[in-house]
Amino acid sequence: MEVPSRSRVDLPAHVPNDFEVYVGGLRQARGADYEVVGRMLVFPRPIEQEGRLGFWRWAGMWLGIAGSYRKHETVDVVYEADGHRQVETGLVPEALED
Prior knowledge:
four-stranded antiparallel β-sheet, mainly beta, 1 helix
């Protein structure tokens, strides 16, 4: 299985053009960490998501045998609307095929 080299996140329609982007709680710099293409954020690296837990992993966590230690990065966008800071959290990244 080949790992995608880039990721994309679609911006919600109500997010204005002036916003901040965070991945895993760390602020990202436009032009260095991501680009804006239309209403889409394009990251030059894969944004890793844990995915669904299988039965045995879920059962192991429930029984206290093992936890889930896979990498799971979240994408959040912070913007201003009506004089208040708003946050769109948990935006879902998708693989962007080259």
